[in-house]
Amino acid sequence: MAKQDGITVKKNENFSEWFTQVIQKAELADLRYNVKGFLVFQPWSVLSMEKMYHFLETTLQKKGHMPHWFPTLIPEHNLKQESSHLGGFAPEVFWVTHTGDKKLDEKLALRPTSETALYQMFKLWIRSHNDLPYKTYQRAQVFRCDTKATRPFLRSREFHWIETHCAHKTEEDAFNQVKEDMETTEEVLHDIFGIPYIFFERPAWDKFPGAARTFAADALNPDGKVIQQPSTHMISKQFTKAFDVKFKDSDEKEKYAHLTCYGPAVSRIFASVIITHGDDKGLRFPWDIAPTQVMIVPIDKKLHKKAETLKKQIQKFASVNIDLSDKRPGEKFNHWEMKGIPIRIDIGLKDLENKTVTIFRRDTNKKETVSEKEAITKIKEIAQEFTKNLIKKADKVFEGRIKETKNLQEIKKVIKEGSIAKCEFCSVDKPGTECAKKIEKEIVAEVRGTRLDEKQKPQGKCAICGKKANHIVYIAKSY
Amino acid sequence: MAKQDGITVKKNENFSEWFTQVIQKAELADLRYNVKGFLVFQPWSVLSMEKMYHFLETTLQKKGHMPHWFPTLIPEHNLKQESSHLGGFAPEVFWVTHTGDKKLDEKLALRPTSETALYQMFKLWIRSHNDLPYKTYQRAQVFRCDTKATRPFLRSREFHWIETHCAHKTEEDAFNQVKEDMETTEEVLHDIFGIPYIFFERPAWDKFPGAARTFAADALNPDGKVIQQPSTHMISKQFTKAFDVKFKDSDEKEKYAHLTCYGPAVSRIFASVIITHGDDKGLRFPWDIAPTQVMIVPIDKKLHKKAETLKKQIQKFASVNIDLSDKRPGEKFNHWEMKGIPIRIDIGLKDLENKTVTIFRRDTNKKETVSEKEAITKIKEIAQEFTKNLIKKADKVFEGRIKETKNLQEIKKVIKEGSIAKCEFCSVDKPGTECAKKIEKEIVAEVRGTRLDEKQKPQGKCAICGKKANHIVYIAKSY
């Protein structure tokens, strides 16, 4: 990749263009597929997303979720069974109406989400309190003809996700599941993928269609807009009743189960990986989800043997390749920096003479020449601290962009500079709707919610209406 | 699981019922989903199929295939671009015609297979001979509203597969890809999953829509019907031209690429795993694709500590669980035999006293009591030989069901007893069509093809028409 093939804008100055270029130049997805809102995911993103699936799935399995594969197609009447759920998704549903040239008796939806497919099976599978908690998940694609502007990875019309669906005995159990989902998000999205976010409970007016309570993680992009990462929901009694998911409790009484669902969208989380860690040179992959962790670049044919020896030692603990392409060394360096390889090992003729290697690490973008003997220890050291380093930087940036505010003016200023405004607020229940509308109208921003882990309590007045504050909320722009 | 919950028929006497019962009683899939031909895959099959995906994908990656995720939806005009391809799939296509209540300008197909989605991208991606071979694959679901009777796993309307798509410089390279696909099938389907089959080249009248040559593996069910496992195709020039997939060769001339594709259908291969290895007690999983490899059954609470100690030792080299359920020991034994766990370790109170454990192996269905000290070595030994043992048995059964025949009478007899008839045949090209039709009409069987690895040459006359034989073919019933 020649120098002119690098990204031509700065990430923090023109984020939108930076994002478009990095997707194209790091070969993550081809946007030229001929259905609007659909894209072709290329090997470099798929290899990483497969690893992301691995971490999410093993974490869920450890917590007792069992995998299922449900059909992609859901009959129309399932979706209609609970009106607020259908209402939420109706305009976005892709409908199958024919097979061959035959019209179907009933339309089939490409699943926008799978509650209405699963709950009819929950009704068959769940009989007694001994069956609970019933914890499932599936890896699947979902389809939503989103009316908002599509953006690759961030908002596509087909996305690759995991959805978990659970049934519990009590509301308390269901709420504990939400907390467990929050922990899963922390363990995987933050600690492995390195994405900072806040986990909110959404205001009453911003719930998943069919949910009694909705919780969701918001990450923040450099353009000052938040992007919703996994959301988790406590399903409404009405929804559960519509599908008649009951169990016989230990007191012999029939009771409705308490349902929850959680939806980490891998293809969208991948966007946040790119955005959080990428820099003006391209991608930077956290260690565990890098398609390749170490790339060896011998700059002369005489060095191939040395490269091979090194590769054999490294592949015992990391994925490693040798770049044997015809490109000039500088091109190779730029190429692997664009691709986000965590560690590059450059070997020149001098290194052969001096028994050294040069290690380039993408977290700090620094080079260091070390003796052959020390090389393996050094690489292991970098591997150990690589993701931690990325996380530390990302957390610092994120935390620096949450600002306390006291009134509409201050909120406006904070939002304008691309940050998240924290303020006291009258109510995230129905009565707060008017204040939320004012924020939407005057700042084109949204009340994202309250956080479960917030220790501070509101002391004063709502930053908007001046009435008694009952909540601390966070306000941000979104896509 | 009480004894009456076992399978009530013998596999070799009533295969169809055995298959239905094993799917239900080993909890592999729930057939009560409310769209015809679609099923809910349950954890016990999904856990195994995920392992199957793993082996297929790592093998393909080792051979240079790179993963992609293509959209599930394909515009109608892509499918129409090559008429024989559309013709082959048209009656089976699920069509999306609306999003929300808006009619689409152009119908979108749920992919029945992805050639017509990929080739338009190949046209963009492939420029020069340096880009070739271009080897891709994707893990995906495909949708075919098959007009034949659906059967769970064997023939569903949505199935889970891998499809590889490759572009090559020459016809010879393409043919070598077919051979590589054949090797992949042997390495994974036979050597890991333990499925015996024959890899055929299909007769001229039985090709994939759009293929110049079609190759496919046939496995054999106890009812005497073959089931097609992966097929691989050399795509016709006409198909390649329709999508204009060209490259500039080293002689500076523009040439059409030679395309191939290969499609191992994991959910169908899983059916062959069940069918090949299962017995009258239920499933038997090959070692590497067992959801759990070892189950420890302590028959008393006093034995839990011993079970835990054993588990810790075993989990270093195998997946292992302890059955702590309330069931009676006999029920537990039957349950795990039904579920196909390769090794069960029973611990009774006497074992505590004698410092022994009892090892039950599902390949031979035999129990052996060994000292605690020997246990781990013994389990490792069994693990080593387990799949080999299953394969040996399966191969023997399969080979015993291929019979040489000389005329229609003999073919009829062999087919009637549930075997595959091998015979000399006039021609698998167009001229043989009449003889094939006769076989279809009089025996309701099909010429499945010739084998690439056949060393014998035809010496005499066609078993049907008596004219000079040019091929050795295999004849069998199919679904």
Structure description:
Two copies of one chain form a homodimer. Chain A is an alpha+beta fold and 479 residues long. Chain A has three domains: 3-277, 2-Layer Sandwich (BirA Bifunctional Protein, domain 2), CATH 3.30.930; 292-382, 3-Layer(aba) Sandwich (Rossmann fold), CATH 3.40.50; 402-478, C-terminal domain of ProRS (Translation Initiation Factor IF3, 2-Layer Sandwich), CATH 3.30.110.30. Chain A has helices spanning 15-25, 43-62, 76-80, 83-89, 115-125, 171-190, 237-243, 266-277, 304-314, 329-339, 349-354, 372-399, 408-416, 433-443, and strands at residues 29-30, 40-41, 66-67, 73-75, 94-99, 102-110, 134-143, 158-168, 198-201, 211-220, 225-235, 246-248, 254-256, 258-262, 294-298, 320-322, 343-347, 356-361, 366-371, 402-404, 420-425, 446-451, 471-478. In chain A, the strands form five sheets. In chain A, strands 9-10-11-23-22 form a five-stranded mixed beta barrel, surrounded by four helices. In chain A, strands 16-15-17-18-19 form a five-stranded mixed β-sheet, with helices on both faces. In chain A, a hairpin with a 5-residue loop joins strand 12 (246-248) and strand 13. Strand 5 (94-99) of chain A pairs antiparallel with strand 5 of chain B, so a sheet runs across the interface.
Brief rundown of the structure:
The structure is a homodimer of 479-residue chains. With 479 residues, chain A is α+β, with helices and mostly antiparallel strands.
